[in-house]
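User: Let's play a game. I give you a shape written as tokens, and you guess the letters that built it. Ready? Here's round one.
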């Protein structure tokens, strides 16, 4: 498996280490997951599953039904 060397400042290293620990991952696995998530080219399955679960967005005309006409704008 290829390896990558990464130079970061002490603060960034501490934040990476803490984030990896919270996630229960090694820093290498945490970074690999982050890169995978940020470079994906398709929507996550959870998002794809939502397609069609809401009715279509109403048109501008439907939203304006029953509204009074706007007043003319000032010049």
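Assistant: Ready! My guess for every position:
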């Amino acid at each position: 498996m290829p390896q990558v060397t990464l130079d970061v400042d002490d603060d960034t290293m501490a934040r990476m280490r803490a984030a990896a620990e919270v996630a229960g991952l090694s820093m290498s696995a945490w970074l690999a997951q982050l890169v995978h998530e940020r470079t994906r080219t398709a929507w996550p399955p959870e998002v794809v599953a939502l397609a069609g679960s809401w009715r279509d967005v109403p048109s501008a005309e439907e939203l304006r039904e029953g509204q009074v006409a706007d007043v003319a704008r000032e010049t």
